[in-house]
User: Which sequence fits this backbone?
């Protein structure tokens, strides 16, 4: 059963359990009343935490207590009352705990990047990863391994050369992601389509494959150093290189998720149907809306296009009616 949770989530469970037991100790709750915990006790714990941290952090702590119950086959008594308490904690999130929206990477920033990168193997890998994360709407962890050491690479977690496949005669490629946040080990497919101009994920991919001699079993996110040793490209290396370039242009520091939301925003601004963008980015509907950037511009663009189409249809219909209404000679 522990494998039902991601490793990073499991690592938080012991601390979450101890925090709950510490609250019980402080409140004088008898040991036999702590497991299983009554819904009233759980609501009291939420009320104690509420206002001191974000609602998401409170829910995370309660989920850790729930996991403790499930692992010990104890009845979980959280219900509607607990859910209402958690909603209240969300509403009581202090201003200091509210995260600012992460700014998106833009096409202009990728142009800055390509202008400053060297024409060597490492920067070819950097540019491939940046373009792929942007146009593929990827989370960096789905594309890049955690360690630079090739011997630690796990092809069940990150793609290798065999996971790239030509999709059609237009030159588009499918990238198989062996492990994703939502599908887990089932994996999902990302699509890379050829673009006009300097910033093209397909061209960046092909250049990277050639310069870094990527074979079928070679980690896709890897490059050959100057000393001839192959190393994996990690998110830390990618972000450090990108932020070096952008900082020199006076831009703030960007995080890995900025590629995903930047790619999504760019495709929407290009007028791509939002349903197509959501499907291609493997977004859930709620997350998709939460991570939209430049919403007023996007809404205006799509409404104007839709209304413009309707206006054109109306003009054609009126012309047809006038033609039919003319008296026949």
Assistant:
């Amino acid at each position: 059963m522990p494998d039902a949770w991601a490793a990073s989530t499991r690592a938080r469970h012991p601390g979450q359990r101890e925090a709950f037991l510490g609250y019980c100790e402080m409140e004088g709750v008898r040991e036999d009343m702590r497991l299983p915990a009554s819904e009233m006790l759980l609501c009291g714990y939420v009320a104690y935490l509420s206002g001191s941290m974000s609602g998401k952090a409170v829910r995370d702590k309660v989920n850790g207590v729930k996991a403790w119950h499930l692992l010990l086959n104890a009845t979980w008594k959280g219900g509607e009352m607990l859910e209402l308490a958690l909603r209240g904690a969300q509403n009581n999130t202090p201003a200091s705990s509210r995260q600012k929206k992460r700014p998106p990477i833009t096409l202009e920033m990728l142009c800055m990047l390509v202008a400053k990168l060297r024409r060597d193997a490492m920067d070819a890998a950097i540019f491939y990863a940046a373009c792929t994360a942007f146009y593929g709407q990827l989370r960096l962890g789905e594309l890049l391994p955690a360690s630079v050491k090739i011997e630690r690479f796990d092809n069940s977690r990150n793609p290798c050369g065999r996971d790239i496949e030509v999709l059609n005669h237009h030159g588009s490629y499918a990238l198989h992601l062996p492990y994703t946040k939502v599908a887990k080990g089932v994996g999902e497919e990302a699509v890379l389509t050829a673009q006009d101009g300097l910033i093209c994920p397909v061209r960046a991919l092909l250049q990277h494959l050639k310069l870094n001699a990527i074979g079928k079993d070679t980690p896709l996110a890897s490059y050959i150093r100057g000393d001839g040793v192959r190393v994996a490209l990690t998110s830390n290396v990618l972000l450090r290189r990108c932020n070096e370039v952008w900082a020199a242009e006076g831009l703030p520091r960007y995080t890995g998720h900025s590629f995903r939301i930047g790619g999504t925003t760019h495709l929407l601004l290009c007028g791509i149907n939002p349903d197509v963008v959501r499907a291609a980015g493997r977004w859930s509907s709620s997350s998709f809306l939460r991570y939209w950037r430049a919403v007023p511009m996007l809404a205006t663009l799509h409404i104007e296009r839709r209304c413009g189409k309707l206006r054109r249809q109306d003009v054609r219909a009126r012309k047809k009616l006038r033609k039919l209404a003319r008296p026949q000679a």
The first strand starts at residue 164 and ends at 166. The CA atoms of residues 126 and 220 lie 12 Å apart.
